């Protein structure tokens, strides 16, 4: 199931990655909350050459979030297993095959694969979900769950009511903690089977007031269960989200100060390592530009 919003050119590659699966899905649903003509054409073209049914499902109204699009796309599904792929991500050809096999072997309720980042054809390790996390571990930060790297039993999604449509961001973490809180079990597919592709334009992680308000809503929903360190982390990322380039310089400086104030030494080191993993030439470029 692919939720999409006014990104027909990216949707082409996402659909191709699903159609290239070594284990073919029984059907593909594209959930379009913009009811966009160009998107409809992309889906029609893919359906004309595909061996599996592809359904275009427009929906308007509601909160207009990724969670609401995913729920709309999954509504009425009769399949036992459901996977979601964001329109700007890609599945490796063996994603469904490997995830289904691990899910069945473990008798788990959902399977989570590892991620890679791809920016300008440079591929680097993304989030690596570990095994054995509890709901309390997962309120923040995100340990490896995205909107694209999990395969669920339909019964698991029905148990928790699917994604929270009111959350514009962090709906993947929210779903994970609710699944674990309901006593459902996951298994990790220890292979990078999903590509998160960097591209121009807005992402759910783009620094903006919308992201900041979404993180605040997520924090308020789970603040009672969160540890003090997790609540501090939420405040840090809210300040980071409000450092967008549309802000005045003094506002950006204020939010940078707030971000640093709520950053523990451990989190600072983890962030530096993550940035270096995604961009190994970061320091080399800085050195070249200073000469």
Would you give an account of this structure?
The model is unreliable at 282-291 (pLDDT under 50). The chain has eleven helices and nine strands. The strands form two sheets. Strands 4, 5, 6, 7, 8 and 9 form a six-stranded mixed β-sheet that branches. The protein folds into two domains: 2-197, Spore Coat Polysaccharide Biosynthesis Protein SpsA, Chain A; 209-280. The chain is of the alpha/beta class. Helix 2 links the parallel strand 2 and strand 3.
Tally the structural domains: 2
- Give the name of the CATH architecture of the largest domain: Alpha-Beta Complex
CATH topology of the largest domain: Spore Coat Polysaccharide Biosynthesis Protein SpsA, Chain A
Largest sheet: 6 strands, mixed
Radius of gyration: 19 Å
Name of the CATH first level of the largest domain: Alpha Beta
Helix content: 40-55%
- DSSP strand (E) fraction? 15-25%
* Terminal CA distance: 49 Å
Global mean pLDDT: 90
3D shape: globular
Low-pLDDT segments, ≥5 res: 282-291
Could you give the count of β-strands? 9
């Amino acid at each position: 199931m692919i939720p999409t919003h006014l990104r027909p050119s990216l949707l082409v590659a996402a659909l191709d990655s699903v159609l290239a699966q070594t284990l073919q899905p029984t059907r593909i649903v594209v959930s379009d909350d913009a009811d966009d003509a160009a998107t409809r054409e992309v889906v029609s073209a893919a359906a004309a050459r595909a061996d599996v049914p592809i359904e275009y499902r427009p929906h308007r109204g509601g909160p207009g979030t990724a969670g609401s699009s995913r729920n709309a796309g999954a509504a009425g599904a009769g399949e036992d297993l459901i996977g979601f792929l964001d329109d700007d991500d890609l599945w490796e050809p063996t994603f469904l095959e490997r995830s289904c096999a691990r899910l069945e072997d473990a008798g788990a309720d959902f399977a989570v694969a590892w991620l890679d980042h791809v920016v300008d054809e440079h591929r680097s390790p993304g989030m690596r979900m570990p095994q054995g996390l509890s709901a309390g571990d997962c309120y923040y930060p995100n340990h490896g769950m995205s909107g694209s790297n999990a395969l669920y039993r339909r019964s698991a999604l029905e148990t928790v009511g699917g994604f929270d449509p009111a959350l514009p961001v962090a709906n993947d973490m929210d779903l994970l903690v609710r699944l674990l809180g309901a006593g459902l079990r996951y298994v990790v597919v220890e292979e990078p089977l999903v590509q998160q592709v960097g591209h121009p334009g807005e992402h759910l992680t783009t620094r903006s007031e919308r992201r900041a308000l979404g993180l605040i809503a997520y924090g308020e929903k789970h603040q009672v269960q969160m540890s003090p360190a997790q609540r501090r982390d939420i405040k840090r990322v809210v300040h980071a989200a409000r450092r967008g380039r549309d802000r005045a310089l003094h506002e950006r400086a204020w939010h940078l100060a707030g971000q640093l104030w709520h950053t523990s030494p451990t989190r600072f080191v983890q962030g530096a390592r993550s940035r270096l993993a995604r961009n190994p030439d970061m320091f080399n470029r800085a050195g070249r530009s200073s000469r």
